[in-house]
Amino acid sequence: MKVREALKKDMPQVLELIKELAIFEKEPDAVEVTVQDLEREGFGENPLFTCFVAELDDEIVGAALVYFRFSTWKGRTLHLEDLIVKEAKRGKGIGEALYKKVMQFAFDRGLKRVAWDVLDWNTGAIRFYERSGANVLSTWRVVHMDEKSLKNYINS
Question: Per the database record, which ranges form the N-acetyltransferase domain (predicted)?
Fold first, then answer.
């Protein structure tokens, strides 16, 4: 297995992983991003994200997408948007290799924190994160405002 930074040409396979994750998270129709969006936003003059992929026998079997954030308490931090491994390839150390690559990426840049979200029912992931030393916060809630809600609020 090889873990490397993604190339623009990898984005069709990365999008397929994103769609597989949406199915796993019980949101099969939620993916709106396109290959063109991923290519434009990840590989332009000012890329909005960095993506790492795991390759096994010339097939991309996992991906981790990250981007920089700024914390008023910590300064520059990293957000792990998604860590995805093909269902048929789980349990082979692919997720851990991607996770380690993300943590090394943050460490090498002197970042103060890496943050991400995990669904409360994804107990396998939660156990893995806790074993790695991550602090899974139970007192914070993730807040989203989707496009429809945003429009309604702005126009109210």
Answer: 1-155
